[in-house]
Amino acid sequence: MNPPKTAFTQARRHHDPEVRGFASDNYAGAHPEVMAALALANGGHQVAYGEDDYTENLQGIIRSHFGASAEAFPVFNGTGANVLALQAVTDRWGAVICAESAHINVDEGGAPERMGGLKLLTVPTPDGKLTPELIDRQAWGWDDEHRAMPQVVSITQSTELGTLYTPDEIRAICDHAHAHGMKVHLDGSRIANAAASLDVPMRTFTNAVGVDILSLGGTKNGALFGEAVVVIDQDAVRHMKHLRKLSMQLASKMRFVSVQLEALLAKDLWLRNARHANEMAQRLAEGVRAVHGVEILHPVQANGVFARLPHDVSVRLQKRFRFYFWDEAAGDVRWMCAFDTTEEDVDAFVAAVKEEMAG
What we know:
By secondary structure, the protein is of the alpha/beta class. The protein is built from 13 helices and eleven strands. Helix 1 packs across helix 10, helix 2 runs parallel beside helix 10 and helix 12 crosses helix 13. The longest helix has 21 residues.
C-alpha cells in the first residue's frame, strides 16, 4: 500500500537560483560537471569505506598533481581535513605554529585544540602570511616540559586575507621548519585559486618546495561536499587510516566524495573555476576602487576582496547583497567571488556600492 501523498513527499525548490551574494564561495552550488560525475558514480554496488574504484582512480590523479609519493584520504569537510592532517603530524604534547588569522585558529570553533588535542601557537601577521622570522617567535622551548612542543608550521594558500605565498616563500618556510625538526602543513581550501593566480601547477608550491601534508579543498571550488588530506611525505605521517576513522571523517560511500575530486582534478575544471572566481574578484576590486570612500585593504590575489567603508553603508548594502563583516568595529568587510559569479553580478554589486555611498 502506497503512503498517502502529502506536501512533503516530493522535493521542491525553496530558493531563487538567480540570487547571488558575495558572502562566501561556499554559498555557490555544485558545478554541473560535478553533479554529472555524481550521477555517473551512482547505481550498482561499490565496496564501502574507500575500497571503491573511484577512490582508487583518484590516487593516480592526486599523484599527477602532488608527486609519486602522494596519497589522498578523502574526508567530509575542511575543518575535518585540517584537524586530521594536524593530528597526523603531532604528538600528544605537540603544538602547531600558525598565523593569528589562520582558519584553524579563528574559524574552526576550537576543533584543532579540543578535538585534535594539540596546541596552537599563533603569530600576528600584517598580511596573513608567516615568514621564518615570524615563525621564530614561537619556535622555541622544545626541551621545556612546561611548554607545548612546536612540531608543525601550518600555512594557508591562499591566505585568509586573500594574499598569496610565492613558491620561494613557502620553500623558505619549509627549509626553516625542517631545520628545526618541524613539519609543514598547508591548508589548501582555496589552493586552486592560488595556483590560478600564480599561474603554476599546484606541485610548484607544495611537494616541490617541501610541504609534508596538505588539506585539499573541493567545496569552495565547485564540489557539493568533500575535501581530502593529501600526504606527501609518507615518513612524516603515522596511522592515517586509523586517525581518519577516529576523527569521524571516514565516509562509508566514499565513491561520492572521490568522484567529485576526480571531476575537478582529472582535467582542468579546478583551474577554470578558480580562474573565473579570481577574475570576478579583480573586476569587483577595480569597480569599487574608483568609489570615493572605499578602501581596498589587501592585494587582491585570489577570489576575495577585503575593503573598508562606512559601517552604515555596509549595513544598507547587506540588505541587498549577502556579505560578512571581517572587523565590524573597524568597518572592514570581505567580499568573495565564486565559480558561478557573473560579470552582471559584480557590476550590479558595484552599482549598489556607488548608490549607497552616494546616499
